[in-house]
Amino acid sequence: MSSRSLSILVIDENRPRASIIEAGLREAGHERVTIVHDVNAIARRIAEVEPDVIVIDLENPNRDMLENMFNLSRAVKRPIAMFVDRSDQASIEAAVEAGVSAYVVDGLRQERVKPILDMAISRFNAFSRMSRELDEARSALESRKIIDKAKGILMRSRGLSEEEAYALLRRTAMNQNRKISEIAQSLVVASGLLDGGGLP
Predict the structure, then answer these.
(1) Lateral strand order in the sheet of 8-12
(2) Angle, CA of 192, 196 and 198, to the nearest 5°
(3) Which Pfam family would be a valid example here (predicted)?
(4) Comparing C-alpha atoms, which of 54, 43, 44 is closest to residue 10?
(5) DSSP code of 8?
(6) By CB neighbour count within 10 A (0-12 exposed, 13-18 middle, 19+ buried), where does 16 fall?
(7) 192: pLDDT confidence band, cut at 50, 70 and 90?
(8) C-beta separation of 45 from 68 below 8 A
């Protein structure tokens, strides 16, 4: 998707400030820009608009407002660029923790909107990629553990070597058109039941 075809939702209760952001986006060639001035029921508006990117300008937010927006950031799973006029270290750390892609203090100027938006998208994509890779690594580790456990069961119960146990798991998985980890999981569960481990 071209960056210029992105749907961008701007959340700003202050109309003059919102116009600065909108001007910066339109100057950068973005045409699909939606402005929301009322933050009430903002989750519903996001569901309606389905934006690719969200820009939030809070001017001088109180702690409750910040927390609400941080909760929003955790929920929507989209690149978010947030402008505030003032902040403290705790709020900056909370923003990072909430996954805000760009948290900009005292930096709302028309010419800065585009580069900050680009940075937010890049950071979000990088973070998403790292999260996905981490999930895949965890899944692979769990699969490896369950396969090792299944191999151990086969080695003890059938007197197989480790290589033979793995070959049997792999052959069974191929015959049943399933993953080795699924076969291994079934074997471990069945073994637990037969040993009485799954019974109350």
Answers:
(1) 33-36, 8-12, 53-57, 80-84, 102-105
(2) 55
(3) Response_reg
(4) 54
(5) E
(6) exposed
(7) confident
(8) no
169 token code pair: 């798991």
Phi and psi at 55, nearest 5°, equal -115, 125
Global pTM value? 0.71
Quick one: pLDDT at residue 61?
Answer: 76
Distance CA 10, CA 186 (A): 50
Q: How many Å is the Cα radius of gyration of the chain? A: 25
- Using one digit for the tens of pLDDT, what is the confidence trace for 99-117? 889 988 887 899 999 999 9
* 3-class secondary-structure state, position 195: coil
Would you report the helix, strand and coil content of the chain in percent, each value rounded to 5? Answer: 60, 10, 25
pLDDT tens across 118-157, in order? 999 999 999 999 999 999 999 999 999 999 999 999 999 9
CA distances for 19 relative to 8, 51, 105, 139, angstroms: 14, 18, 18, 46
Of the candidates 83, 103, 107, the residue with the CA atom closest to the CA atom of residue 94: 103
The Cα–Cα gap between 65 and 22 comes to 22
Virtual torsion, Cα 31, 32, 38, 44, nearest 10 deg: 180
